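Help needed: design a sequence for this.
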């Protein structure tokens, strides 16, 4: 009988600990870093956080397409928020190898990761477990792709191929009309195309 009571009491005290892992914790913004990273004030501690399950284009050490827009969007929401909360996921590590806290972030009751994806500034990434809001994020990403929002907008890519095709047509006309200048034109075009392709890849 005593043994059973001890087991029941142990479960009683352990249960709240499990629930706490999924509870939202109110924090205040210390510093917004970029589209998926921020520093928060938690009680008397300053913690660096990495937003769970998303990846935004770079905007700090290396600037990628939509990186600046992603950073501005995230920072604007955080800086103007009336209430910010974080939530740890029971199926994720609490911190990563860089000592960043891996969290879900809520701005005025809305899941920040989902908002960033909906606006085309992030993709679902770094899934190392069955995380709580993964399905919501994947659905939001699907819709953003279908609507060609933000980083899923193909207009720039289409423009590049249009101008590339136009350039090839012009080159062919010049090539046929001015046979004496063929080698010079050919060399110049190759050099220009190589530079443009490098820009697009980098």
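Sure. Designed sequence:
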């Amino acid at each position: 009988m005593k043994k059973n009571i001890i087991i029941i009491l142990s479960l009683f005290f352990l249960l709240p600990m499990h629930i706490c892992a999924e509870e939202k914790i109110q924090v205040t913004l210390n510093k917004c870093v970029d589209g998926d990273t921020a520093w928060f004030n938690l009680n008397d501690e300053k913690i660096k956080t990495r937003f769970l399950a998303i990846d935004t284009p770079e905007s700090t050490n290396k600037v990628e397409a939509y990186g600046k827009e992603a950073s501005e969007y995230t920072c604007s929401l955080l800086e103007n928020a009336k209430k910010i909360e974080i939530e740890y996921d029971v199926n994720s590590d609490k911190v990563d190898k860089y000592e960043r806290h891996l969290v879900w972030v809520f701005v005025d009751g809305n899941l920040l990761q989902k908002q960033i994806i909906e606006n085309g500034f992030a993709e679902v990434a770094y899934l190392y477990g069955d995380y709580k809001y993964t399905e919501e994020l994947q659905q939001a990403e699907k819709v953003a792709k279908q609507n060609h929002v933000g980083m899923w907008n193909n207009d720039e890519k289409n423009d590049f191929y249009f101008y590339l095709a136009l350039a090839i047509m012009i080159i062919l006309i010049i090539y046929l009309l001015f046979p004496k200048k063929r080698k010079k034109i050919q060399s110049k075009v190759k050099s220009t195309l190589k530079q443009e392709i490098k820009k697009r890849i980098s």
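The beta strands are 25-34, 37-42, 45-51, 54-55, 84-87, 101-107, 110-111, 123-124.
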